[in-house]
Amino acid sequence: MLTKFNHVAIVVPNLDEASKKYRDILGANVSVVNNYKEHGVSVVFVELDNTKIELMHPYGENSPIKNFLEKNNNGAIHHICLEVKDIIKACDRLKSFGIRILGENKPKIGAHDKPVIFLHPKDFYGTLIELEQE
Ligand code: CO
Predict the structure, then answer these.
(1) How far is the CA of 7 from the centre of ligand 1 (A)?
(2) Is the pLDDT assigned to residue 106 strictly greater than 90?
(3) How many Å apart are CA 16 and CA 88, to the nearest integer?
(4) Helices within the chain (DSSP H only)
(5) Is 54 exposed, middle or buried (0-12, 13-18, 19+ CB in 10 A)?
(6) Separation CA 100–CA 94 (nearest Å)
(7) pLDDT one-digit tens code per residue, 3-52
(8) In the chain, what is the greatest distance between 2 CA atoms, to the nearest angstrom?
(9) d(CA 51, ligand 1 centre) in Å
(10) How far is the CA of 24 from the centre of ligand 1 (A)?
(11) What pLDDT, on the 0 to 100 scale, is given for residue 118?
(12) pTM for the complete prediction?
């Protein structure tokens, strides 16, 4: 079912500081800040040859990552994103095994304009998993 690793998302307390650290100390290619109003996040992409790291910070008052940053005020890994070929098939399969899907229990369009679902971290060893259709 799984095909590729897509990204790891890290919530950071200061996006400019974090993006400078990745650029100036680690020597990585970092994007400009992208604001996703509808997702309530600002994201900087750290581009690597085989994958990317997404540095995230809450955007707006109702950001879904606001509480996460309050609990982890120095920042922390928020989720990993793995690709699947067919998100609907993946959904059905996961449900048949009793895996909980967050939100409305069906795919929604993620920040990359592709359908995504998030799996309950309690069903996957404390890790929030985003599945994205490739
Ligand atoms: Co993600």
Answers:
(1) 7
(2) no
(3) 37
(4) 15-20, 66-71, 87-96
(5) buried
(6) 8
(7) 999 999 999 999 999 999 999 999 999 999 999 998 999 999 999 999 99
(8) 47
(9) 12
(10) 24
(11) 96
(12) 0.93
